[in-house]
Amino acid sequence: MHIARQEVSERSVVFCFHSCLSVFVEFGCLAPSGGHSALLTLISRKVVRTSKFRHVFGQAVKADQCYDDIRISQMTWDSNFCSVNPKFVAMIVDASGGGAFIVLPLSKTGRIDMSLPTVCGHTGPVLDIEFCPHNDNIIASCSEDCSVMIWEIPDGGLISPLKDPVVKLDGHSKRVGILSWHPTAHNVLMSAGCDNVVILWNVVHGEAVVRIDSMHTDLIYSACWNRNGSQILTSCKDKKLRVIDPRKGSVICEKDKPHEGSRPVRAVFVSDGKILTTGFSRMSERQVALWDPNNFSEPLTLQELDTSSGVLLPFFDPDTGVVYLCGKGDSSIRYFEVTDEAPYVHYLSMYSSKESQKGMGYMPKRGLEVNKCEIARFYKLHERKCEPIVMTVPRKSDLFQEDLYPDTIGPEPSVEADDWFAGKNGEPILISLKDGFVATTKNKEFKVIKSLMATTSSSSSNRQSDSVVREQRESSALQNEVKELREMVEQLTKRVSDLESN
Predict the structure, then answer these.
(1) Where is this region: Disordered (predicted)?
(2) Cα–Cα separations (whole angstroms), residue 68 to 48, 117, 145, 444
(3) Is the pTM of this model over 0.85?
């Protein structure tokens, strides 16, 4: 409301100025020339900021394009509870006797059968899930059972319950609540648990390569990578914001109390290495702030939003510079544009609906319909359904809008896990969406990395090689046994013939 009133007041200033100029012209105090119009235009530009995203609007899809009759998890953990890519949408659901989540092909809309197979290998409730950015068939999950598991989903979705993961990663001593795949390195996964430990896994070998266990003194609220994965950003219950060198496990810089309130803080990297945080004031007002890590003393901007109690989950789009704030328990999505001009974080608009959200999934840019000027798509979780929400820039032309869709991050990794842990960084490999938006779900369109089963699971490959060796040994043993039996039969036959002759 505060930001909305600010916009109304800005427009009022322009309107009043225009009225005053008209009065001056009427009474002869100002010549009726185009000078005052130019002046008005100049001041209008200063007061009302121009932006191609000012008129972005959100719209829910039709009822038949939603996913209905899904028992969304009742856990109170502050994670997204949903992950989505151009092939699948995954949601954490209620399950008896353990934890489970469902994975649906995007096209499988409508009412979901209660008997639909789930991924149900965890023995405790699932707290977070995330699809691999380099392989749309691979998804990671973490749970209260202290484990992280990697799963492979068949192209058409599940046809039977999936209980055995491709890789199981054990290393946390308490429940694991945060997962994040490396943006550019293949098969590098970060996890953070309630044991205040951050672990970087090499999924190829199924082992923990880096363990950051003495830095955070309390519960970790959020953890994310920067654009090329050379830094990690964490927010913690000890009221500190930390930028970490992930391979050395050392703090590059930190900020104490980015927000004065005691409720959870979320933080993400935005453009030019800056950091956007959401948190609470001492009076429990929700805030959004922008920080420069090179000067953590004061925020570049700090804005108060409202007095709601839900934690704001930020989703940043590096292509457009737009950040979306989705509050758990809210019924709205606010969106802002992050620029280099003060006040740096500019309010754009807000999508509102009647029902509150229990979680939110965010579609990668390569999964959007660019011919409809769609710049973002969210998958909003209700009590019993998942509802896609489309963010669109209104344009009259049906042609490809190059200014809305610069080259974006593709699914091809730029560095392998072993090389990254050895110190090599890789910038994101960008792709153009101009010709690829028609068939975004086809592997060949985006050169998706081959199945993790074939390249990243050392345990499975060992099992395969062991089984081959075992089969060879069994075959050899059988051949020897048959040979011995033949010799025995020959001996008995000879003995019988000798006895008959006698």
Answers:
(1) 455-482
(2) 42, 16, 29, 31
(3) no
